[in-house]
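Table S7 (text form). Paired inputs.
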Amino acid sequence: MSENGFPDRSHLPTSPGVYIFKDAGDTVIYVGKAKNVRSRVASYFNRSGDGRPKIAELRERVRQIDFIVTSSETEALVLEANLIKRHRPRFNASLKDDKSYPYIVVTTGDEYPRVFATRSSHDPRHRYFGPFPSAGSVHATLDVLNKTFPFRKCRGPEPGRRSGVPCLNYHIGRSAAPCIGAVSKQDYDGIIADVISFLEGRVDGLIREREAAMREAAKDTDFERAAKLRDEISALTHVRDRQRATIASEDSFDAFGAYAEDETACVQVFAVREGQIVNRDSFLLDNYGESRAEDVSLQFVPQYYGTAAVPREVLVQSDDREDELEMLADHLSGLRGTSVEVRQPRRGDKRRILEMALRNAELGLEHERMLDEARRNRVASTLDGLREELALPQLPVRIECYDISNTMGTNSVASMVVFQGGRPAKSEYRRFKVRTVEGADDFASMAEVIRRRLERLKADDEKFTPAPDLILLDGGKGQLSAVIPILEEMRVGEELPDIPLRSLAKREEEIFEPGRPEPVILKRNSPELHLLQRVRDEAHRFANAYHTKVRGKAMTASVLDDLPGVGPERKKKILAHFGTPEAFLNASLEELESVPGLPGRVAREVHTRVHR
C-alpha cells in the first residue's frame, strides 16, 4: 500500500492491457481495459475520480491491482469481456442472471446436423444463433422450425437409434429420417441450409422458393406436396408478418440501445436482416458502478456476441469515441471472418432504428421495475399471510425445506432447499448422505439431517448461515415428532435461535406444528399454500435427483467392479457403449461382444458371470 492508503501503482505498465481491482478478500470487484494501464488506473485515484458516483466506494475497497499486458487494444477488449463473464465483478455492468443465455445451435460439424437449444460452451465446428433472452423465446423459434423443416431430432453425432427403427417424428412428418436413408445427403443439407437462412432472418427468400415449388407441384397434380408447401408458406409468412418492420435499404445490422438508471441498466438489441426487423431482444443488467448508458452499451456488445453470428454492421451509442469503435470493429471482424463496421448513425433509417432501441431500453427498464415492484408486493403479502396463518414470530423470508429419498432403505440421502424472499436461492441448496440410519427409517433420517444442519449453524459454518426463519419438513406428524427433540436438545445452554418448525403432509396438504394436535389447513388456491407447495416440491425434486446420482454410482460400482477381466478402462468403454448399468445387465452375448475394445473371451466370461 502507498502512503495515502491506496494500492501501489508504480509497478503498472504503460502498455495496452487489462487492469483488475481486488478487495481485501481477494475478490475481483472491477475489470477494465486501457491503452495505457498505469495512466488509466491513476484516473481512479485522482481527487475527482472519473466522474462516476460509485468511484469513491470503489477506491475505498481496492486493496490489490493486478494487470495483464496485451499486444493490442483489441486483444485487451476481448480479455476484458472474458474476465467480466468469468468473475462478474460488482462494479462492472453485467447480465443480472448469472446463468448463460440460451442459443440455437446447428451442428454443422456433423455429417447430418441437428438443431437444438443449448447453454453449453460453443464448439467452433458448429453454427450458433443468439443469445436469446429466455428459454421461452428459444422454444418458440424451435417450434416454428420443427413444423417447417424436417431435420432430425435424435441425439448424438450419428442419426438414428440403436434399434435401427425410425422414431415417431418420421411417421408424423417432423423428421426426414436420414437414419434409414429416407433422404439423400444432398437433400438433407438443403434442409439445414433453409434452417440457417431462417435463423439469419432471410425468410422472404424461403417463402419465394416454396411458392415456386408449390406452383410446380400443382402443375404436376402433386397436390399432397403442394398442400405441404402451402402449410410451410403459411408458417413462414406468420413469422415474417409478426416480426416485420421495414426500412428503405436492404442492409443487415444489429442496433444496441442502452438505458441506465442508478444501479440497473437495460440493453435492447434490434436485429435487422435484409431491411426487416426480424428480432428484438431485451437484457437486464446489474450496473452497480452506475456507468453511463454509452459505456454499458459498448461493454455489452462483446459479451453479447461471444462466438455467435455477427452481422456486417453494428450500430451503437458511442459519444464520438472513434478509437473504441475501431477497436470493437476489429474484434467483431475477427469473429465474423470479414470486415464489420461499428458506428453511431447520424441520420436516416438507421438512426431511427437506433433511437427505437434506445427508447425501448428506457421503457424496458421502467417495465422491469414495475414488474419487480409488483412481485415484491405480492411476495411480501404472501409472506405476511404465512406469518399470520402459521403463527410465526416474524416474516419467513428464508424458508428451508428438507426431504428424504431412498430405495427400500438403500442409498438414503436428504435435500435442503432454500427459498429467499419467495424465490429459490439455488446457491444455498445443500444435500446430505444419511450416515447413521440403517434401512428405510425416514423419521430417524430426518432427525439426523436436521441435527447436522443445526450443528453447522452453531459452528458458524458460512455454508450454513444465516439461520432460517422457518424449517419446513416434507412429511407429516412422524417427521415432526422425530425432529422436535433435536431442536429442544440443541437449544439447551446453547446460543441457538428459536427457529419455527412445521411439516407439510402431501395427501391433504395439512400443516403440523409442535404442540398443536390439529393441523392448519390453508385454502386450496391461496398464494400461501402455493408457496409452501413450491418449496416442498423443489425439495422433493432435489432429493430425488441426488438419490438417482448416488444410486447410479452404487449400481455401477456393484455391477462392474468385480467382473473378470474388466479394469477401469474397460469399465468406461462398457458404460460408454451401453449408457446405463441397466442396459448392460440386459445385454445379450452378441451385444457384449460388439463392445469396442472388449475381447470376445472377456465378453463371454462377463456374460456368464452376470447371468449365472
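Next pair, protein 2 of 2.
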Amino acid sequence: MNHEDTLCLAIIEDSGHKAEGHATALRNAGFTVRFDLVNNLDGLAGLFSSSSPDIVFCGTGNQLPDLNSVTRLLTERAEGVPVIAFTDEITDAAVNDADHNGVMALVAYDDPDSLQAVMKREQQTVLLRRQVRQLGKRLAEAETRCSTLMESSRDAIAYIHEGMHIHANNSYLDLFGFSELDEIAGLPIMNMIDPGDHEKFRKFLRSYDNDSNGTLKIRGVEPGGNPFDAVIEFSPASIDSEACTQIVIRNHADVELEAKLDTLSQQDMLTGLCNRQHFMQVVNTSIQNDVEEDQLQAVAYILLENFKSIREEIGIAGSDMVINDIARLVETACGQDDVIARFSDYVFTVLHYDSSKEGIQQFAETLRQKVGEHVSDIEGQAATTTCSIGICVLNEHTSNAQNILSRADLACEVARSSGGNQIHTHSTTVDEKMDAGNEDKWDEVISATIREERFHLVYQPIVSLNGNAGSRYEVLLRIVDEEDHIILPGQFLSIAEKTGKSGEIDRWVINKAFSTLVEQGDDGSDVEFFIKLAGATLEDPELPVWINRILKDYRIKSDRICFEIPEAVAIRDLKNTRTFIKAMQNLHCRVAIEHFGCANQSQLIQHLPVDLLKIDGSLVNGLASSEEQQEKIKTLIDLARKANIPCVAERVDDSGDLAKLWEYGIDYIQGNFVQEPSKELEHDFEGELA
C-alpha cells in the first residue's frame, strides 16, 4: 500500500492505549494508518480545522462526548466523513443509537476482527470520499486563486458571453478608459476593436470553437480613439457555473519579463547550461516523443575526477573558472540538437542524438579525450582534470528520466571505480530480462549469481557535521551478470525478494561486511558499518540468532553495526520490524530507518525505538532550489530532534544542498559530494567536513 492509501483517523478515546489498539488492529490486517487522538468536541473541531481525517472512531466513556454530539459536529464541519462507533457490548439500545446517528458501523471493543472486516469492505469508499473532498477543496482554492490573480494581474482580462462583457479586471478597465465595472457590463466587445478590424474580428468569432483556445492579432482602441496593436487570447471559462469566454490582452513588458524569468529558471547560473530540473524535464519529454527510425538517444553522465582537490588547490573562484572552461568544451563536442546540463557541482549530463551505438561511443570518447587534454590557466596556475563517463541509451525499457539518470550514474561509477578516465555503457540485457517477466528463469539467474558469488561490496562514507568522532560507511552491494555487466541493485533485489532469495543475499552481505571489519584489525576499531536489509529478511525469526552467532565468530563489537530498514518496509510490517529492532538492541547493535520522509508517516518513530533516521535522497537532491523540499526537510529534522534521534541526509551531491542541510542542523551527510562509493575504506574523516 502506498502513502496515498494511508488511512487518516480521528480517534475519540479516553486513553492512548485504546487508540493504539484500534490502529494496531488495522495495521495487522495490512492497512497503513495514521491517527490523531482527541477526547472532547473542541479537540475534534480543531482537528478538522487543521487537517482532513478520512474517518472518525468514536469510543465509549464517561468523559467522552456522546455519539449524537459527534455526528452533529461532523454535519457542521465535515459533512460526509463516516463514523465507526465502539461499545463495550452490542445491545439493541447501542444499535438503535448508532442507526439513529447514521454511523457506518458499530464494533465491540473486544472484536478487532469485525473492525478489520468493516474497513476492508469500506476502504475504497473511504478513500474515494477523501478524493472527492480534496478535489472540492482544490476547486474552491483554484477559483479563489484565479480570482485573486485576475484582479492583481497587469494583463487585461475580461469575460464575454455572446459578444457582451460580463466581467473584467482593473487592468482591462484602465486599458479602455473605464472606471467602474458597471460601465462595461453588457457592452459589446466590438466597441473595443478598431473599426478597420471589425470584419476580421467577426470572421474569427464565427469560426472560433468555444471549447478550445485561440489567438487573434488585432488592433484595439484606446480611450482617446487611437488604435493599438494587440494579441487577444481566447479560452473557454465559466462564471457562476455559466459558460463564457475569457479574453486576455497581454502586457507586452510582462510577456518579455516572463520569458526572461522562464529562461533563467531553466539555466545553471554559473555556466549558462541547463540546470538539473530542466534537464530532467527535457529527458522525460524526449521519452514521450517519437524519434526518427535512424536516430538513437542517449544520456551521458560526465563526472569530473579529483575535482575536490582542484578546489582545495585553487579555491572556489578558480574552480568555478575551470567548470566554465569544461562547460564550453562540452558544448563544442556536442551536436546542434544535443541538450547539455550542469547536473551538479562537478557533473555534466548530455542528451545526445546519434545514428548508431558506435557513434554514441565515439562521441563519448572524443569528449573524454578533450577533457583530459584540456588545461585551464587560472591566474598563471594550470589546472587539469579527467572524467569518467557513463552512458544509458534510451529504449523501451527506460520509462522516465530518473530511471535513465540512475543507470547512467551507475555506469559512470563503474568507469570511475575501474580506474577512472574511462567510459562505461549501461547494458540493456538485464532490462530486457526484467521485462520478460519469467520468474522461473530469474530464480535460476539469482541462484547462479549467489552460487558464483558475482557480488562485491563498495563503501560510502557517512560524515558527521557536528564533530562526532568515528568512521562510518554504508555498505552497498554491486552485482554483475554472467557477461560481466553491472546490474542495478534495485532491479536485482526486487526480483530476489519476489523469488525468496533476498534473505540469502542479505546474509552474504552481512557475512562479507563482518569479514571486512575484521580485516581492519586494531586500526579499524572505530569503523562502523551501516548494512541494508530487505523486507523479507525481517520475517526470518532465525536471523537475530544467526547475527549473534557470527558476531561472536568474528569477535566484532556489536556497536560497530547499524542495520538499515526501509521506511516502506517498517510501515508495511510494523510487527516484524519492532521484533527485529528489539532483538538487535538486545545485542547492542543499532538500527536505522532509511528513506525516511517518503511516506509522510511522522508518527512512525513513536512506534519504533530506532537509533538513527536516514532522510531519503529524493528530498535532499535539489534541496537548494526547492522551497517545498526545504520545508519538508526542516520538519523532519525538527521531528527527529524532538525525539532525540540523529539524522543522516542521503544523496548529498551538491554544495548548495549541503549548505542548506548545514543551516538546518543535520547531524550526518552521505553522498557523492563527500565521496563516491569505493571498494576501499579510505576516506579521511578528519578532513574539512568532519
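The first strand starts at residue 7 and ends at 12.
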